[in-house]
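Session log. Operator J.P. requested a structure for one protein chain; no other inputs attached. Running the standard single-chain path with token output.
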Amino acid sequence: MEVIALKKINNNEKSRTENVIRNSFFALISKFGVLILQFICRTIFIKVLSEEYLGLNGLFTNILTILSFAELGLGNAIIYNMYKPLSDKNHKEVSKLLKLYRKSYNLVATFILGAGLLCIPFLKDLIGDVPNIKESIYVIYVLFLLQSATSYFLTYRRSLIIADQKEYICSKADLLSEIIATVLKIIILLVFKNYILFLLIQISRNLIANGILFVKSKKMYKNIDENKVESLSKEKEKTIFKNVKDLMLYKISSTINSGTDNIIITKIVGLSVVGIASNYSLLVSSVNQVLSKITGSFTASIGNLNAKESIENREQVFYILNFLVTWIYGFCGIMLIIFLNPFVKIWIGEKFLLNISVVVALVLEFYICGIQYPGYNYAITTGLFKKAKWGAFSSAIINIILSIILGLKFGAFGVFLATGLSRLCSQTWLDPYLVFKYEFKKSSKPFFLKVIRNFCFVILNLIICYFIFSKVKIDNILVLLIYCLLCAIICNLIFFIEFFKTWEFKDIINRLVFLKNSRKVKQ
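Structure written below.
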């Protein structure tokens, strides 16, 4: 069923579209720049330090991802409550929310620090055989812990910028701080070969970015001052923290899904495999982070949309978002499956390669994660996470059980496959179902049929491209780039043939033409 006919775009839609394009553009540039810097730094890291350091990096990152559950839902709950007062220019209410946010994040940082210290006696049990490194694993762990805890200081002001649909400012600050930190880390690796100093620089990177945004937001929002208002009423605080609790249960699924893989692989297969797999996880998650920055830039605009627009318009945007993530994540997934192994071989050598089945499992989880975004964004910005919380929480339990069972049988492939399957069992279907039932007041069946049809198109595209490019000989970076370009052209051409007649594709073109013409009129 083709849902909504094309219609004239109003000024609110124009403004939101402009914000999305601006935020997406700067997010893409920023994240791409950060990834290049991280890639250079990771390459030097691998050459200078051993695989055990890589494994330790991945393991401690996972442990602290689990500990960060204390924050889960807090940022989203505060931003969720900011959409309306920001739209109404209610500066006093926004200031009160920021005051609560600052207090809450200081408590979160304290909790993570305390809980992390309590985990120290169990480190050797998690690691198994002590890795062959000269530094104390306890000192390294404490530095990772400080890095996680300090990331919450001064960060509350970032939420104000994001809720105001100006996330591109955050992207600029993140890029600047990453440039400074990466240059210093590369110097430390090459000159001193010191892992402790390397981690200390990483700690400072968080403080630099948050400090820049803190100062910037003070200048941008002079009428918003959390130091000059009384606290929110107890009743309002109670409502917000109920949302936090619900969001925590809702988001814990994603945290456990992404935060337990390396821990389970360490116990089942070993730390060295975690080190090798972490290179692949870094590459796949890096692509995901770039795309998440783009899709994440929609969130504030969707919050504004859901606060102001009709059900018909909200449903139209939902379908368009689904169309975009299908194309973008489908294309990137195909490219990763075909070229990830050739890239790793050229980058760091054949001994760091994983079986293609592991690559497919990683990319499947990447694609499933991507197509969750429309439902996830609507659930977060409309409050439907309250209804989805237990379904998402059960997914976390399924992930742990499946990861252990499949991990014991199939190793790293089984663990990564379990992560994708557990995502499929939760938000992938539950969020859209709830959005259609409670927001759009209609059946979700046509939407899911479209999702299945689109997935079949992605698989067809993968089969064609894999048949063409999987057997080609790639032995240097220039050849790799040429084949990547050719594959990208063929892949997107196939998608164009599959999708150009859909109303979603026509609507996107319509919006872009409208914006272009509007700017010509202004000039």
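Operator note: The mean pLDDT is 80.
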